[in-house]
Structure formats: C-alpha cells, structure tokens
Amino acid sequence: MTTICNNLKKIQENITIAAERSGRPAGAVQLIAVSKRMDSGKIHQAIACGQYIFGENYLQEAQQKLPILDDNLRWHFIGHLQSNKARLAVKLFDVIETVDRIKIARAIDQHAAALNRDLRILVQVNIGREKQKHGVLPEDTEELLESIRQTTRLTVSGLMGMPPWSKDPETSRKYFRELKELSVLLSKQELFSDNNNVELSMGMSSDYVVAIEEGATMVRVGTALFGRRE
Ligand SMILES: *Cc1c(COP(=O)(O)O)cnc(C)c1O
C-alpha cells in the first residue's frame, strides 16, 4: 500500500471514531481531499485507494488538472473566487464552498443558468473575524442568505468556515461550535435549501477530529493525506 493509502485509511478511522463520538455514523462526514499543489500522480493514488471527492483552491491549476482526471470525481472549490472567474468555476466544479457576498452568488447563478445547470454552494463565514480572511461576518450571514434566495440555480447546502490558525486543535473548538450554532439558528429561519440537512464544512489536517466532534459534515484535509505541499 502507498503512503497515501495508509494516510487515507488512518484519516477514515479517525473520522469514524470522531463521528461516533458525536452520535453520528461515519457516513455522515465526507472527506474532501484537498489536492491543491499536488500533481495528478498523487491524485491518482488517492483515487486508487477509493477517494473520489477533491478540493482545489486555484482556478488555473484546476483548469489544467481536472480535465485529465476521471469523470466520476466530485470537485469542491475552496479558494477565493472573483466574479470574473465565476464562469470557469461553474464549469469545473460541483460545489463552490466560498460564497461570501451577493455579487459572487449572482455571478455564479447567472453562469449556472447559462450552462443550464444547478449548482451547490456553501456560504463561507469568517468565524474568527480575521481581517486577512475572506468570508461573511457571522452577524451578516442571515442577510446574505436572504439575498441569495432571489437566485434561481443555487442550492444553498450550508456553511463553511476556517478558525484562526493555531497549533493546538482545541483552540478551534469554540469557533466550530459557533459555526454549528449559527447554522442551527439559520436553519430554523429556513434559509437553506434543505433545512433538515445542513452541511458544515469545517476542519483541516490539524483539527478535523475536533471539527467532527462539533458537527462537521465535511472536512477538508490536504497535508495529512498527501504530505507536505511543495
Ligand atoms: C489548503 C486548505 C485546506 C487543507 O489544509 P491542510 O492543512 O493541508 O489539511 C483546507 N481548506 C482550505 C480552505 C484550504 O485552503
């Protein structure tokens, strides 16, 4: 077995244990393999071990990599998106996790309509209120979701968030908890497409176990799976 296979197995075991600890089956948590700056050889290794959902941050890189890979894969866009790149993102990706303003939501919606398809999105929330991070502020999320209701092609599946960087995963816990609480509040106001099944994309290599304990339904893991990025 390759290192990537071993890593994948270990991560899946951790996911299962953490999901059970939060009273959910392992299947309630999806692993998004973050393949940014990883070559297609590494992606192929992960595919060979059964992984089929991947995340990419950079459109140019994705444009080069995605077409040469298997059609049955699912791709999540997890980078910052500019309106003038929305068309390309809609063409390449199955889920866009980083919608954080109405302008980008409208741009995605228009391009989805032009391509005659629906598109799943998550709203990115700046849970740590960090200046250098993208995302809508927690208190502005309700208004953004209200505005997104006017669109026609977007399936608003849930929220995505990244806590401030920390070496200690326990530091992330309160941010994950806040994002979960926000999602519950907003689902009670019926602001998602399926309010009984709201996705929460939170947790990366260093803190995905804590994120699952706090209710993550998607974890975005790169280095723990593929090793260090170049
Ligand atoms: C790079 C990245 C990840 C994965 O980070 P790792 O620490 O390598 O697991 C997850 N989410 C986003 C938004 C990223 O940019």
Structure characterization notes:
- The chain has 230 residues and is of the alpha/beta class.
- It contains 9 helices and 8 strands.
- It has an 8-stranded parallel sheet with strand order 7-6-5-4-3-2-1-8.
- Helix 5 links the parallel strand 4 (95-99) and strand 5.
- The model has no long low-confidence stretch (mean pLDDT 96).
- Pyridoxal-5'-phosphate is lined by residues 34, 36, 57, 78, 162, 204-205, 220-224.
- By secondary-structure content and strand pairing, the structural class works out as alpha/beta
Shape: globular
Number of strand segments? 8
Give me the Rg, rounded. Answer: 17 Å
Instruction: Work out the helicity level.
Output: 25-40%
| Beginning-to-end CA distance, first to last residue | 23 Å
Percentage of residues in strands: 15-25%
Main sheet makeup:
8 strands, parallel
Poorly predicted sequence stretches spanning 5 or more consecutive residues: none
